[in-house]
Design brief:
The structure is a homodimer.
Chain A lengths: L26 H20 L8 H10 L5 H8 L3 H13 L3 E5 L7 E5 L1 H17 L1 H6 L2 H20 L3
Antiparallel strand pairs in A: 1-2
Helix pairs in contact in A: 1-5, 2-5, 3-4
The structure holds a DNA duplex.
Chain lengths: 163, 163
DNA sequence: TATTGTTATACTCTATAACTATA
DNA sequence: TATAGTTATAGAGTATAACAATA
């Protein structure tokens, strides 16, 4: 209304010059754009519909924490228990992980990675690295370390406030 | 197998002491956890099923770029054109935005926010700020600026490599 | 009584493909 | 011929609630 001379009634879509407006301060918006791109690109790279999203994360966590329970896994990946059941079904169907009964608490599954799973994990990890290679190339070591540090801080806060 | 003394055959799920393993280097994993939490918390705060996800982003972008086309919007939010159609249907049903025919190219919609939309945007922005208040509180000004800077760098890279 | 995992189910979100109207 | 937007549709992904076994 008080705009002096801006004829930009209709922004040119080809310039890519778009104002983020109110979104400039919103972390969630920036995070989501990156996440969308990364997850889509990752799915394209593996290009197997029997490897569902979350399978890489789950396999990595099982590998690093042998005997992990499904509940603990669900908390770590941020999905519901029921969703984790489906993920583990996939994982067992692939022969990459297995459920054993916990000795201390027979309600629990003790999750373990298999030999095949270890091989698959290597491949998935390589895919993930390749998927993020451009990012690593664009950031200095210091910047990467700083980014991870800040992201961890943010993540910690997310679960610190029970609000 | 060669583990000397660790009886940690089954990690205690209550300690929260879980090893990220291979995931430690993966940006995508860290981003996703945060995004999951943030989007879920945001949805809980607005608590209106007629306000679909993406509506806040879309409204903010339309507000900041009057006359924006749907294609440009779809590129910016990272969704398909068809998905953006549904978002705009919601937006118009809410009376928060409207489609006008572009004068220069009659195939295009020129998107504009309404008076009600401006009010709603204020509320949504406040919700987003509240949703991220804990994060802002935990980070210094410098850290926030640095985080945004790094995230922008990452985002730029995502679309720089056509790979 | 509370918790682990399971099943069945329904719902939300998103993309694909075919169509139209403009260019 | 190519692009902007639309429609119809199918599919992926996730959560909810009720249940069984165990604690």
């Amino acid at each position: 209304m008080a705009k002096a001379d801006g004829p930009a009634q209709e922004p040119d879509p080809d310039t890519g010059e778009i104002d983020l407006g109110v979104l400039k301060d919103v972390i969630g918006f920036r995070i989501r754009r990156i996440q969308n791109h990364l997850s889509r690109a990752f799915a394209e790279r593996i290009d197997r519909k029997d490897v569902r999203p979350g399978v890489f994360s789950a396999l990595a966590l099982i590998s690093a924490n042998p005997g992990l329970s499904q509940t603990a896994l669900s908390r770590e990946v941020g999905f519901d228990k029921a969703t984790v059941v489906a993920m583990l079904d996939s994982l067992e169907r692939l022969g990459w992980a297995e459920r054993r009964r916990s000795k201390h608490d027979r309600r629990r599954s003790a999750l373990h990675i298999t030999a095949d799973g270890k091989k698959a994990l290597k491949g998935l990890r390589a895919t993930a690295v390749a998927n993020e290679a451009a990012i690593h190339a664009a950031l200095t070591e210091d910047e990467q370390a700083r980014l991870f540090e800040l992201l961890d801080k943010v993540y910690a806060v997310c679960f610190a406030d029970p609000e």
